[in-house]
């Protein structure tokens, strides 16, 4: 009996590995930035070209940075979730990073689909995006009072990720 | 049919095809021309670094090969960092700080990558050990174990 059991065990182990492999999304690369200070930036605000916004301005509050662009289809899919979230009383401020976009296109997009952002950082050449290790828009960062990145989400935020992952983390950070 | 045509025509046709191919490939190259290929030495250094980095958008391509926007941006970034006098190691560090060891086609050997590096060797050793035990066990069996079973040969187990 034993010698028939061994191949079965090996087969089940293999099936286990393959089953886990099926669930993994190769596009989700763990970011080395989680647990590190959010990279510094100092850039114009999308809606007000003469105003600037910097990472230092955010110190002392918990905030989220959502990377978006008007050309990004998945951002449209995620957008209603953010708009609904930002409307809630006591919601954590969400800032946008308008990534590799044109000002007019970005502003028009916000007008059409709603604007959940306190402000959007304008990053037309994607330099801030590179500093944040952005490779697939939309991406969302949760940043704590000390300016440390606590969580990064790649791809559109669904109501489920917001409810099960992001909101519990935010409650913890608000303490 | 073709053989009845004068050789001159065929030559002209071939020349035309060649010219067309050259023009087309020229156009294709022109479309991909990097924005600042002023210095071929720096460009070669940039491509050497980019060839070691994985493009995160199309993950089976290097940043040197990929046509993704991100890869184009990162090539530009490498170009500028080289122009500032940074060396290869600094630039590779810069990329791993942002995208992790995953961007390196040759990741460093450390605790989190130990299985990746040692895995194939472990599999070979395991397979050889298995083969060895099976062969040893068979060697110790008597000749009768290899006789074909007879119809009334009941398994005692």
Care to describe what's here?
The complex is a heterodimer of chains A (175) and B (157). Chain A has 175 residues and is an alpha/beta fold. Chain A has one domain (32-174): 3-Layer(aba) Sandwich (Glutaredoxin). Chain A is built from 5 helices and 7 strands, in the order H-E-E-E-H-E-H-E-H-E-E-H. Chain A has helices spanning 2-23, 73-87, 103-113, 127-131, 159-174, and strands at 42-44, 52-54, 63-68, 94-99, 120-123, 139-143, 149-154. In chain A, strands 5-4-3-6-7 form a 5-stranded mixed sheet. A two-stranded antiparallel sheet of chain A has the order 1-2. Chain A is elongated and about 80 Å long. Chain B has 157 residues and is mostly helical. The radius of gyration of chain B is 30 Å and the shape is flat. The model of chain B has no long low-confidence stretch (mean pLDDT 79). The chains are: A alpha/beta (175), B mainly alpha (157).
Helix-strand layout with pairing:
The complex is a heterodimer of chains A (175) and B (157).
Chain A: H1 2-23, E1 42-44, E2 52-54, E3 63-68, H2 73-87, E4 94-99, H3 103-113, E5 120-123, H4 127-131, E6 139-143, E7 149-154, H5 159-174
Parallel strand pairs in A: 3-4, 4-5
Antiparallel strand pairs in A: 1-2, 3-6, 6-7
Chain B: H1 7-32, H2 40-50, H3 69-83, H4 88-99, H5 114-140
Helix pairs in contact in B: 2-3
Output the number of helix runs of chain B.
5
Q: Using CB atoms under 8 Å apart, which protein chain pair has the greatest interface?
A: A-B, 17 and 16 residues
Strand portion of chain A, in percent?
Answer: 15-25%
Helix percentage of chain A: 25-40%
N- to C-terminal separation of chain A?
58 Å
**Helix-strand category of chain B:** mainly alpha
Number of strands of chain B: 0
Our estimate of the beta-strand percent of chain B is: under 5%
Mean pLDDT of chain B: 79
Q: Radius of gyration of chain B, rounded?
A: 30 Å
Ranges of chain B with pLDDT <50 over ≥5 residues? none
Order of helices and strands of chain B: HHHHH
Counting copies of identical and different chains, the oligomeric state is heterodimer
């Amino acid at each position: 009996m034993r010698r028939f059991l061994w191949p079965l065990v090996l087969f089940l182990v293999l099936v286990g590995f393959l089953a886990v492999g099926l669930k993994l999304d190769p596009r989700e690369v763990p970011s080395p930035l989680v647990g590190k200070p959010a990279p510094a930036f100092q850039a114009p605000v999308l809606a007000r070209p003469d105003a600037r916004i910097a990472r230092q301005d955010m110190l002392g509050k918990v905030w989220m940075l959502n990377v978006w662009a008007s050309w990004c289809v998945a951002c449209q899919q995620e957008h209603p979730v953010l708009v609904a979230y930002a409307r809630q009383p006591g919601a954590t401020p969400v800032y946008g990073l308008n990534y590799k976009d044109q000002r007019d296109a970005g502003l028009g997009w916000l007008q059409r689909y709603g604007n959940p952002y306190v402000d959007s950082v304008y990053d037309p050449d994607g330099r801030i995006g590179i500093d944040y290790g952005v490779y697939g828009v939309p991406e969302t960062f949760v940043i704590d009072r000390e300016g440390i990145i606590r969580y990064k989400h790649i791809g559109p935020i669904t109501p489920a990720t917001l409810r099960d992952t992001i909101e519990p983390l935010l409650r913890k950070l608000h303490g | 049919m073709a053989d009845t045509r004068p050789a001159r025509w065929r030559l002209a046709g071939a020349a035309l095809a060649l010219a067309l191919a050259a023009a087309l490939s020229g156009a294709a190259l022109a479309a991909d021309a990097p924005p600042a290929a002023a210095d071929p030495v720096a460009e070669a250094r940039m491509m050497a670094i980019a060839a070691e980095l994985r493009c995160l958008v199309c993950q089976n391509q290097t940043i040197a090969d990929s046509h993704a926007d991100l890869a184009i941006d990162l090539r530009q970034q490498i170009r500028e960092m080289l122009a500032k006098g940074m060396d290869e190691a600094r630039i590779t560090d810069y990329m791993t700080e942002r995208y992790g060891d995953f961007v390196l086609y040759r990741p460093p050997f450390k605790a989190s990558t130990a299985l990746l590096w040692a895995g194939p060797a472990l599999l070979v050793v395991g397979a050889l050990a298995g083969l060895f035990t099976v062969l040893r066990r068979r060697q110790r069996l008597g000749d009768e174990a290899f006789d074909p079973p007879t119809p009334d040969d009941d398994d005692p187990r």
